[in-house]
Design goal:
With 242 residues, this protein is an alpha/beta fold. It contains seven helices and ten strands. One of its GO terms (molecular function) is ATP hydrolysis activity.
Length: 242
């Protein structure tokens, strides 16, 4: 069951490419509550990544605003917001060293210095993805694309964010690695119960059906309910209702 106040609420947010005179994200309303699992599909270039990066406050909004637990996100709160609202891209960047070195890296950053690396916890996360404890000793340069994505996911999940914004995290993976990543993310969600949520962008309709209880589509920067879903059940942009 979703909580009364959304974790994240977008109010008429807009992203523009002023250089080329294009609106990448039309004025969009969107709400994500605890326990919510949202899948977004749509053609390439439709604005899916633009939306996720806007929700993560990785790119500045050209209009509108975001609320976090009902409050507007002030500039000083952005580092804390990004800690809780985690964006995961398709192709992860790993540092040179072992898997464990990569998993320890976030704790060297100021925003995470109140936390401590927990090897037992990350071994459990690795196990959800079908990897044993020896996986942490592997060198990053030896990993396949699927294994590198699993490391990137564990690196974020160990920090216990409230929300995952997943930008086609399995698009370049083989089916086995994709399912392992799905299992890992689902275990994270189940462990946090209703306090956690995700938005998952995917080109794979079957995957979207698996990972999303709410199905949305995006075209030309407009977010709308999927054709098979009741329009009244999903927050949509006002433009899509016209």
């Amino acid at each position: 069951m979703m909580t009364a106040t959304p974790i994240v609420q977008a109010e008429r947010i807009v992203r523009r490419d002023t250089r080329h005179g294009k609106t990448l994200l039309q004025p969009t309303d969107f709400a994500l509550a605890g326990g919510d699992r949202v899948a977004i599909t749509g053609p390439s270039g439709s604005g899916k990544s633009v939306l996720l990066r806007a929700l993560a406050l990785l790119d500045p909004l050209d209009d509108g605003r975001l609320r976090w637990h009902g409050r507007a996100v002030r500039r000083a709160a952005i580092p804390r917001y990004r800690r809780e609202i985690a964006y995961i891209r398709q192709r992860p960047a790993l540092i040179d060293g072992t898997v464990e070195d990569n998993l320890r890296y976030p704790f060297s950053l100021r925003v995470y210095r109140d936390l401590q690396f927990n090897r037992a916890a990350v071994e459990m996360l690795a196990a959800h993805a079908g990897r044993d404890a020896g996986f942490l000793e592997r060198h990053a340069s030896e990993l396949s694309g699927g294994e590198a994505q699993i490391v990137a996911l564990i690196r974020v999940l160990q920090l216990a964010p409230q929300v995952l914004l997943l930008d086609e995290p399995t698009a370049s993976l083989d089916p086995e690695s994709a399912l392992a990543s799905e299992a890992l993310i689902t275990a994270w969600f189940d462990d946090g119960a209703a306090a956690r949520a995700w938005v998952w962008v995917s080109h794979d309709a079957a995957q979207a059906a698996r990972v999303g209880k709410r199905q949305l589509t995006m075209r030309a920067g407009v977010l709308s309910a999927a054709a098979s879903e009741s329009l009244t059940a999903v927050p949509i942009s006002k433009e899509s209702a016209q």
